[in-house]
């Protein structure tokens, strides 16, 4: 009876435990469902937050695009205002020209300031190019970083997957153990507590499983994104490699096409070299040839032009200025003809606003580079006649930029000015942009010289201080008597002047340095103290020193002191006086003191005349010093 009662109690207890177990299982399921709903709610909230952020980014992008459009519109308005301002300035110049000549020079000073702004813009462009290179390096670094991160994430993903599988396996084993324990249920309460504890552990394991699954899903999505990005980068890399190989082929084709353009234009071919070895004999031959051609230049002007060309290693540009019809273009033309140099004259156009105006442009329709006459000639000077039959490298060559100030020289000739300055200390190249990121590097040699002419009228632009400091400026005076043109035809040339001969005449050592460092450097420093805002720097004095060292009279006459004085006078005309243009002369004590310093020089009368005019501004347009009788006697008696 007792056993039956006990069995009955056990049975009832068993049923009670089963009911409790079912209730707890249902409770666990409800908790699991609730937890799943909570996680889903959190995920949906996070997803909504991400979508809101994305919309915010889209709004920011829209704002940026609107700002860009506004800036573009402002730029157009500014360009329109600038154009209107330039038109107004031209009209105002005509009005001021009738009312007050002084106002014209003030406007020219404003133009000089605009040149300085252009220099700043060029520097900013260079900085942007540097920033672009840095950005490219950053992109390459980011690409490598993303690749490494993808590999790390893949490893983490695999590890997470393995951990998840292990946890799942442990969970299965634990469930099986619990089922076994359930079948062996101990009637004691302690065992029930242990089961409940194990159930809680089971819930924790299940939560870990869900977290692991969620992390696995997140990593899977991220992995797919990284794989897509990696595929895109690989495609871009393939395109870059393809473009690089295609670029080499295009580069060679465009080079070949330009050389074919040279051949089609019937280029000059070097004949036999001249036997000229003596510098003074060379100059005498040129002077005699000009006179036989009924063209007469003062000997001093010829010597100045020749010395300026020899000093191009420090001041690479020789500028011939004056009113139209004074023989500015004729001097270099006859110099190269009777001297045996190669020559190219280029008419500068007012529309020139970039180096491409001088070099040429890439023709995308025909996939070729349309080279200008200058570029074709420049390529000839980089090749020897052994490399190409049209090569001119063995001979000296001159390029004449005729009416160079019709456009801003800083825009179309900036790279040459910069590279010619670099060439003082090391070899350098000129970069020719052949299109689609292809660049042809051409060496800038010592066999090529640059000369420019500029008319002084209202249609031209003044040279900035940056250009003046890098140039020798020869002024051609207004003719006192007008003559009819009675020229003959040019005779044939006897041979070309070898570049090695001309470069052998150049003196870079400075044999008269001690004398220059004494008297003439001190005098230049005294003048510089009175130049105020127009003062000169080290580069100007170095150019003056090089000019004096290379003057034919200084190199080849016995009386060096007198020759140095004449050479220094010419340096004042070439380097100092051009910087004074436009300075107010009325009650200007600085100019008066400079005039006192120059009283013993033959240029003193020209300096005085530049100060005494109706404009009350320094305007140097005379050249009395060229007809100095003492210079003529000295040059004839000393040679």
UniProtKB/TrEMBL annotation:
Keywords: Coiled coil. SUPFAM superfamilies: P-loop containing nucleoside triphosphate hydrolases (SSF52540). It comes from Helicobacter pylori UM114. Gene3D superfamilies: P-loop containing nucleotide triphosphate hydrolases (3.40.50.300). InterPro entries: P-loop_NTPase. It comes from the Bacteria. The keyword Coiled coil applies. Residues 18-243 form a coiled coil. This is Restriction endonuclease.
